[in-house]
Amino acid sequence: MTAHGTSTGKAAEDTEDAEGFDVEEVLALVKDGHEPRPGDHLPAPADRTAARTRAGKDQPGKDQPGKDRPGKDRPGKDQDGRGKDQDGRDHGARHRHKATPWPTAREAAARAARAAARARPRPSVTVALDAALGLTLAEPLTALTDLPSFDTSAMDGWAVAGPGPWTVRDDGVLAGHAGHRPLGDGEAVRIATGARVPADTTAVLRTEHGRTDDKGRLHAARERALVPGQDIRPRGQECRTGERLLPAGTLVTPAVLGLAAAAGYDALTAVPRPRVDVLVLGDELLTEGLPHDGLIRDALGPMLPPWLRALGAEVTAVRRIGDDAEALHTAVTTSGADVVVTTGGTAAGPVDHLHPTLRRIGAELLVDGVKVRPGHPMLLARTREDQHLVGLPGNPLAAVSGLLTLAEPLLRVLAARPAPEPYGLPLQDPVQGHPYDTRLVPVVLRGDRAVPLRYNGPAMLRGIAAADALAVVPPGGARPGEETELLDLPWATGGIGVCFT
Fold first, then answer.
1. For 35-76, how does the pLDDT look when each residue is reduced to its tens digit (9 = 90+)?
2. Who contacts 99 (Cβ-Cβ below 8 Å, separation ≥6)?
3. Helix (H) or strand (E) holding 217
4. Contact 308, 411 (CB under 8 A)
5. What is the rounded end-to-end Cα distance, in angstroms, of the chain?
6. What is the C-alpha separation between 224 and 103, in angstroms, rounded?
7. Cα gap 359→82, rounded to integer Å
8. Whole-number mean pLDDT of the chain?
C-alpha cells in the first residue's frame, strides 16, 4: 500500500556490536576473501557521524507547531500520516518516541553493511575499463609502463640538434611513427605533438618561435637561447613502471579511467557493485497512461533503479508485486540480491504486508521508523546474514528520504565507496521545522546560499526534480542565514555516481 503512513511496529533495539570497520577493512575483506575467525579484532569505524549530523541533532521544539504535510486522507490515518489504534487513539506521539533519530538511523545502516561484509566477504571482480565507471578500486593502481614511455614532443614545431641556425631535413616526424634516424649537429626536422623525438635531439623549437631564411635555414625567432630539453616530455616524467598511482579505495572516475588506460590497463580489479532487487508494491499503480478511476502512475518504478545505480548498486530486478502478501513473501525469500528495496507497505494498514512478512521469515528489524519528515515509516531489516531489506514509504519524496537515509549508507559501505565530506550552507529563506523530527527539504544552491523549494510534501517530486541537494533541517526549523547540513544529489555535483547504464 503506497499511502503515506507511520509504521506502528516497535523500533528495534540496535543490538549490533558497536565495533565495526571502515572502508579500508571492507577492501581488505574483498581483496583477500578473509573469513573472520572467533577472536578476530576489527578496528572501530572512523567517526564521521558527529560532523555529518551536526546540523541534524534533535533540538527543543519551537513554539510554532510543525506544518501538516500534504497527503491522502485514508481511513485510520490523520493528515500527517500517523496511524490510529483499533480503538481510535492516535499513536503518533507513541511512535515518534520509538522511532530512531535520523543520524542514528544512517549510522545503523552503515554498521549493518560492515557486518554483512564481515560475515560474507565478496570477492573482487575484474572489469573492463568501459564498464568500471563508479566502481571502487580493490587494489592499488600501479603503472605498468613509464609515462611517457619514450621522449616525446610537447609541441608542434621542429626537433633541433645543437645551436642554430639549423638545416631542415625534408622528412617529418609524426605521432605514432618510430624508426627516425638521429639528428646530426645543426640539423632540424618537423615534428608533431606527441611524436617520439629522434635520437640526439637537443630541444623542440615551437612553430611560433621559428622562422626560415631565404636559404631555407631555420632560426629561433626569440633572442634568448634555446634551453636543452625545452618542450620535450622525457620518458618517465609522470611515473615509472611499478610506481603506485592511486590507492585501493579510490572511486573510478572518468579521469581514473584515462590514467589507467595510459598506464597500460585494459581492465581494473574492483569491489563488485552490491546487487539490489526492487519490489514495487501497490495495486493502485499504473505503468503507463494517465491516472484514472482511483489508479495513479507509478513514479518509483522508473525513478529508483537509476538512483540506486547512482549510489553504486547493480539493479538485478524490478518487480511489481501489488498488494499480495504471498507474492511479497516469495519475492523476498527467493531473492539472491545483497539488498532488497521495497516501496510502500511499511505502515500498518490492511494491505501493508511488509511487517507481517518480515516477522514470518524471522527477519531482524534494525530500524523501524525514523524521526525524519517526510519518510518516517521507513525501515531496515536483516533478512539473512548477508542480505538486508530497505523498506521505503510509498509516497515519492518520502521514498527519496528513505533512500538517502538508509539505502545510501548501506550501499556506500558495501561498495567500499568513500564517505562524502559533510558540509553546509546558510539558508536563504526560513524553513519551518517539525517539533520532534528532522526534515529533509529540497534546495537549489545559489552562490553561498541554499534556497528552499516550495514543493516539498511527501507525495511531491516537483521540488526534488529541480533540486541540487536536500537540506537537513533540525527539529524546530531553521532561520534565514542559519547554516544547514546539505546532502548532495549525485547528478547535481557532477559526481561519477551517475551511472545510468
1. 333 333 333 333 333 333 333 333 333 333 333 333 333 333
2. 11, 368, 369, 370, 371, 376, 437
3. strand 217-220
4. yes
5. 30
6. 64
7. 22
8. 81
Is 195 exposed, middle or buried, given 0-12, 13-18 or 19+ CB atoms closer than 10 A? buried
Q: What is the pTM of this model?
A: 0.74
Cα radius of gyration rounded to whole Å, the chain: 30
CA nearest neighbour of 439 among 475, 481, 484, 467: 475
Partners of residue 389 on adjacent β-strands: 340, 381
Rounded distance, CA 123 to CA 205, Å? Answer: 52
Higher pLDDT, 285 or 436: 436
Verify cis geometry, omega within 30 degrees of 0, for the bond prior to 198: no
Q: What is the DSSP secondary structure assignment for residue 196, as one 8-state letter? A: B
Q: Residue 198 in contact with residue 188, Cβ under 8 Å? A: no
C-alpha cell at 129: 575499463
Distance CA 398, CA 441 (A): 11
Task: Please state the separation of Cα 340 from the chain's center in Å.
Answer: 18
The type of residue at 430 is P
What cell was used for 248? 585501493
How large is the average pLDDT for residues 460-466? 90
The CB-side HSE value for 1 (13 A sphere, CA atoms) comes to 20
Angle in degrees, 0-180, between the axes of helices 23-32 and 102-119, rounded to the nearest 10: 20
Match 583477500 to its residue by C-alpha cell: 32
pLDDT tens digits, 246-301: 999 999 999 999 999 999 999 999 999 999 999 998 877 767 789 888 887 888 88
User: CB atoms < 10 A from the CB of 356, how many?
Assistant: 15
How is 267-336 classified by DSSP, letter by letter?
A: EEEEEPPPEEEEEE--TTEESSS--BTTBEE-SHHHHHHHHHHHTT-EEEEEEE--S-HHHHHHHHHH--
Quick one: DSSP state of residue 207? Answer: G
CB of 271 within 8 A of CB of 124?
Answer: yes
Q: Other CB atoms closer than 10 Å to residue 224's CB: what's the count?
A: 6
Backbone angles phi, psi at 281, to 5 degrees: -105, 155
Q: Which helix (H) or strand (E) holds 27?
A: helix 23-32
Give the number of residues written for the chain. 501
| CB distance 95 to 6 below 8 Å | yes
Q: Nearest to residue 281, comparing CAs of 350, 337, 333, 328?
A: 328
- For residue 48, which amino acid is it? R
152 close to 196: Cβ distance less than 8 angstroms: yes
Nearest of 168, 163, 167, 183 to residue 224 by alpha carbon? 163
Contact yes or no for 55/49 (Cβ under 8 A): no
Cell numbers that stand for 456 in this block: 516539498
